[in-house]
Write a structure and sequence with these properties.
The chain is of the alpha/beta class. Helix content is 45%, strand content 16%. It has ten helices and ten strands. It has helices at residues 29-44, 80-97, 113-120, 147-155, 157-166, 172-177, 190-202, 206-218, 224-238, 242-252; strands at residues 5-10, 13-18, 50-55, 59-61, 102-106, 109-111, 123-127, 131-133, 169-171, 183-185. Strands 1-2-3-5-7-10 form a six-stranded mixed sheet, sandwiched between helices. A four-stranded mixed sheet has the order 4-6-8-9. The chain is globular. The protein starts with a strand and ends in a 10-residue tail after the last helix. Bound molecules: ligand T3D. Residues 23-24, 26, 62-67, 69, 80, 83, 109, 111-113, 133, 135-136, 139, 141, 144 line the site of ligand T3D. It comes from Marinomonas algarum. Pfam families: ECH_1 (PF00378).
């Protein structure tokens, strides 16, 4: 059983909820390790075809637990690079590399790494009262967890610089308007809407969706020619799935498809 997260699976959807509400679900090492453990379960469990990440309490995640950092002037500087290498970078890679859709349901304030973890997910829903804060600049740090990579791609360089250099709070409606997130929901329906969307995705051709995710995630790293080759390779693989056959057969027979995710 987990202490710092909640984890459950229902109707093909895994729900991972950060559960340190007293410190707005900020990350300590134990929570990182539990999240890592949950990702292992997700990858092993053949039932799971979509993931929802959210948080307990009034916040989504306030980034690193700052009470774990000794900033006494006489103490040696902590090696934050090590923390990024051991914990935050692997988490971002796990989300991006998970071969199924990941929905982030941002249920309240999302600050520091907590504002960037959602950006690594495939779809972002936020409750009306959610806020996104690139809090790093306020304590002399650099946006991590992919923030300086995702932000310019999502909102353009001008906005990215404004968000990262000023660290102002962005409300959910503004985040939607600038293309940072996908949808805004009422506070009390966020989780339900995220789970409904995840169940819909979990009933789709999961392997096909994994290839779509891979193609889009790699698109910024390639020129057009290289990317056309990747699309060719992925289409070759997609054409070998059972769900592709089922999709075409169902279309021709004018019935609903029954996808197995393989
Ligand atoms: O160190 C490394 O490994 C490097 C990696 C860094 C990654 C990062 O994420 S760095 C950025 C760290 N995060 C922040 O700088 C955000 C700090 N938090 C805030 O600015 C504010 O708490 C919020 C804007 C997120 C929310 O403000 P508000 O007014 O709604 O709530 P609050 O009263 O500030 O917080 C509520 C409680 O949560 C409070 O505790 P208390 O007084 O009730 O006992 C507060 O101390 C605690 N809390 C909030 N954020 C953190 C935290 N405790 C520890 N670490 C936090 N990050």
């Amino acid at each position: 059983a987990f202490e710092h997260i909640l984890y459950s699976v229902e109707s093909g959807v895994a729900l991972l909820s950060l559960n340190r509400p007293k410190s707005l679900n900020s990350f300590n090492e134990s929570m990182h390790l539990e999240v890592r453990e949950a990702f292992k379960l997700i990858r092993k469990d053949k039932q799971v075809r979509a993931l929802v990440i959210t948080g307990e309490g009034r916040g989504f995640c306030a980034g690193q637990d700052l009470s774990d950092r000794n900033v006494d002037p006489n103490a040696e500087s902590p090696d934050l690079g090590l923390s990024i290498e051991r914990f935050y970078n692997p988490l971002i890679k796990s989300i991006q590399d998970l071969p199924m859709p990941v929905i982030c349901a941002v249920n309240g304030v999302a600050a520091g790494a907590g504002a960037n973890i959602p950006l690594a997910c495939d779809l972002i829903l936020a409750s009306r009262s959610a806020k996104f804060i690139q809090a790093f600049c306020k304590i002399g740090l650099v946006p991590d967890s992919g923030g300086t990579w995702f932000l310019p791609r999502l909102v353009g360089m001008a906005k990215a610089k404004e968000l990262a250099l000023l660290g102002d709070s962005v409300d959910a409606e503004s985040a939607l308007a600038m293309g940072l997130i996908n949808r805004v929901t009422e506070d009390d329906t966020l989780r339900e809407e995220a789970l409904t969307l995840a169940k819909r995705l979990a009933a789709q051709p999961t392997q096909g969706l994994a290839y779509i995710k891979r193609a889009l995630n790699q698109s910024f790293d390639h020129g057009l020619h290289a990317h056309l080759e990747l699309e060719r390779d992925l289409q070759r693989l997609a054409g070998q799935t059972k769900d592709y056959r089922e999709g075409v057969a169902a279309f021709m027979e004018k019935r609903s498809p029954d996808f197995k995710g393989k």
